[in-house]
Amino acid sequence: METTRRVDITPLKPVLRAYTLAYLSVTGPRLLDFLRTLRKQKLSAQEKLGLLYSILNTSTQVNRFPTAAAVIVGGATILPRVARTLLQWLFSSTTKTNSSHLSGRINARLHFLCSFLSAWVAFGLLNRDEAWVRKRAKSRTTATVDASNLELPNQHHLPPPSYHPHYAGKTIDFTLFAFCRALDVAAITTWTRTRSKSWHPEHKTPALANLIRKTADPWIFAASAAIIMWSWFYSPHRLPRAYNRWISNVADIDGRLIQALRLARQGDFVYGQDTGQAPLLTGLCHELGLPEEYGDPAKTVPIPCELYHCGTGKSCEVHAMSRFWRSWKFAMELYVPLQVLTRLRSPSTKSPLEGIRSAARSSSFLAAFVAMFYYGVCLARKRLGPRLFSNKTVSPQMWDSGLCVLAGCLACGWSILLEKPSRRQEIAFFVAPRAIATILPRVYDKRYVRREQAVFATSVAVVLTTLKTGNDRNVRGVLGRVLGGILKE
Q: Which of 66, 366, 406, 417 sits CB 3.0–4.6 Å from 23 for a disulfide?
């Protein structure tokens, strides 16, 4: 009687979990946008089906994130098994002994190497569409040059009008996310492994060590938030469009005020001079029922904070409280539905009251972020700044040319202290890659792509090796729990 062998798919489970989770994370937001489109636009049934098919099918392409995630996880789970088997066979055949297991150090190095190779391949897949574009562009360019040479053989070898430089940077956000997580893992691992050393801060200065542990994430968030908000004010093109739009919605400020501050930094909105920029704010003064000379930099030095308050009165404190209340309501509209979805997915995790309390706390964090930014600006330009420095040392022009905005940028990030310590790390490492991306170029010459690929592969390998070698506590927060569940065999 023949027995049928069952195929063991256990090694493939992490790969399937990674692909499914990545597919849902990419397709879910697009499906929500699809539902919004259906409500706003009148489309035929064929157009609806075509749009839905495009959304569901696009993420299944080889050069998309789900396939890259599956390749990375497969390289971190399946490839080390194959490598271990080959090494054990090699050791057994060489030493004539049965080596049933490898040392922990060799296992760790195998995991790192396999994870590095899989991440290297996944990076190439994510950028594969650009390779296809370059091949097609190259073939078209070659054909154009050949044809023109036949007609005008004496012309110089200039690129045709359709020539475009080859740029990279499509995966820069993904790379920076992995890089920041790897830095976090490396810092925690170093801190843990050196804890037994006599020079460790926990032995010499325990109070300082405890302070570092508690304030590291708030410092990271505050610094990242300052960089992002400064970029939003003066270099919005350095932020992703969706992220820029979201900050603008939360800030809820009249665009003419932002433009005035930008012009002041450029030297086109100058106090005491008629530079032709008065109409920019006089219209806003008229809408708010304020004297029009309030918006004229040639007549009013400096522009009063009452104009920046946009109708909430003269008091900077009342304006800050008003900003807090409006932002809190805006945030509650976001967080309450998320808490409802979380409870529907896991009914036994939280009580309804606990969910509302959590939403209110997160909303208070976001509201305080907005209020502290605006109040920091007012403190610098009116309340505190002129009292600390005379107008001869720091003039009103200098405050409104960037110093007041800098004060708001430095103040707003400390609202993170209102969040739970367990949430601070996730929020900090959500904004840190975006802050670094505003400093680095979002696109660069294609010849430097190997540098990004090496950083990406190394960072991913550090995180996955830490998880697979039993040091999963060093991968903190939601990322550690999600990756731990995916890699579990």
A: 66
CA dist., res. 314 & res. 245, Å (int): 29
Sequence-ordered strand ranges (E) for 166-247: 167-168
Tokens read off for 325: 């209340």
The tokens describing 301, both together, are: 């030095």
Spatial contact of 153 and 168, defined as CB atoms under 8 Å apart? no
Q: Residue 175 corresponds to which tokens in the numbers above?
A: 């790379």
Q: Give CA 69 to chain center in angstroms.
A: 18
Is the preceding omega at residue 302 within 30 degrees of 0, hence cis?
yes
Percentages helix, strand, coil for the chain, rounded to the nearest 5? 75, 0, 25
Amino acid identity of 19?
Y
Query: Considering the entire predicted model, what is its pTM?
Result: 0.81
Helices 65-95, 104-126: inter-axial angle, 10-degree rounding: 150
Instruction: Specify burial of residue 390 (Cβ count, 10 A radius: 0-12, 13-18, 19+).
Output: exposed
Q: Which H or E run includes 166? A: none
Instruction: Round to whole Å and give the CA distance between 479 and 162.
Output: 44
Q: What's the DSSP call for residue 194?
A: T
Nearest to 24 by CA among 70, 59, 50: 59
Question: Which position has the token pair 């708030």?
Answer: 218
Strand partners, 167: 445
Token readout for 226 is: 């300052």
> ω into residue 396 within 30 of 0, thus cis?
no
Do the Cβ atoms of 435 and 223 come closer than 8 Å?
A: yes
Tens digit of pLDDT per residue, the chain (489 long)? 455 556 566 777 888 888 888 888 888 878 877 787 777 777 777 877 888 888 888 888 888 889 999 999 888 888 888 877 787 777 666 665 555 555 667 777 888 999 999 999 999 998 876 544 444 444 444 444 343 333 333 333 444 444 445 566 788 888 999 999 999 888 888 888 888 888 888 888 888 888 888 889 999 999 999 999 999 999 998 888 888 888 988 888 888 999 999 999 998 999 988 888 888 888 888 888 888 888 888 888 888 988 889 888 889 999 999 999 999 998 888 888 777 776 666 655 556 677 788 888 989 999 999 999 999 999 999 889 989 998 889 999 999 999 999 999 999 999 999 998 888 888 998 899 999 999 888 788 888 889 999 999 999 999 988 887 766 666 776 777 777 777 665
